[in-house]
Specification:
Layout: E1 6-10, H1 14-22, H2 25-45, E2 50-57, H3 65-88, E3 91-96, H4 103-116, E4 122-130, H5 132-146, H6 152-158, E5 169-172, E6 191-194, H7 204-215
Parallel strand pairs: 1-2, 1-5, 2-4, 3-4, 5-6
The chain binds 3-methylbut-3-enyl trihydrogen diphosphate (2 copies) and magnesium ion.
């Protein structure tokens, strides 16, 4: 049975779900939050230590302003309403990506990170304004400034994921098979599951089915 320390999820398909069932993409984003809560609960039950959720990519700024604003309002309300609960559950929240938002949202994100920084049951990485290429460029720039060698160890140390294991498992919902600039370095040896269901329809049963299948994969890492 494979150990499972880190699950990463590309939560895709909100817009299509919203159009199909509620006639609006934004309704799909709202419904997607329910899946987030379910998956957090299930991650704890499975005793997984790291959960990385792709919530907004560096490319998602190309969406209509109305949708972008809706997404950030949703996030803000979610954090305001849930941070106490996450904290009580001993969950640590970390933001991946550059925090270039409104001063109000930046402050809220910093406060949530600070409040939960000592928690140890589960670390949730929320990838927000995150792009893997931009993360790698940042790492290379820091290596250059520090004038240290370009090697695997130094690259890992200068990524935003420096203090965590690489994802063992990547799940992308929404019936699309691509990485969309997510954790390109860190996913080098992850087991990847592309799931047909749209994110708001993804539930605990689906998650546990994937985890079960993952546990039984023969992971080679180049060996035989
Ligand atoms: C993923 O769902 C959520 C975000 C990118 C914020 P989408 O909004 O991409 O949903 P689809 O892929 O258009 O259905
Ligand atoms: C990836 O989904 C980003 C998030 C889930 C946050 P997208 O829906 O933005 O990906 P593309 O653009 O279809 O590749
Ligand atoms: Mg999408």
């Amino acid at each position: 049975m494979n150990p499972l320390n880190h699950v990463a999820i590309i939560m895709d398909g909100n817009g299509r779900w919203g159009i199909k069932y509620k006639k609006s993409r934004n309704a799909g984003h709202k419904a997607g939050l329910k899946s987030v809560e379910k998956i957090i609960r299930e991650t704890i039950k499975n005793k997984i230590k790291f959960l990385t959720l792709f919530a907004f990519s560096t490319e998602n700024w190309k969406r209509p302003k109305k949708e972008v604003n809706y997404l950030f309002n949703l996030l803000e309300n979610f954090l305001i309403n849930k941070i106490e609960d996450l904290h009580k559950k001993n969950i640590k929240l970390k933001i991946l990506g550059s925090k270039k938002f409104s001063p109000r949202l930046n402050k809220l994100l910093n406060n949530c990170e600070k409040k939960t920084s000592k928690n140890s049951r589960l670390q949730i990485n929320l990838a927000l304004n995150y792009g893997s290429k931009s993360e790698l460029i940042g790492a290379f720039k820091r290596i250059k400034i520090k004038n240290i060698n370009i090697n695997e160890k130094n690259i890992i140390k200068n990524l935003q994921t420096q203090n965590m294991p690489d994802p063992d498992l990547l799940i992308r919902t929404g019936n699309t098979k691509r990485l969309s600039n997510f954790l390109l370095w860190q996913l080098a040896y992850s087991e990847i599951f592309f799931e047909k269901k749209l994110w708001p329809a993804f539930n605990s049963k689906d998650y546990n089915r994937i985890i079960k299948e993952y546990r039984n994969i023969k992971r080679n890492f180049g060996k035989i």
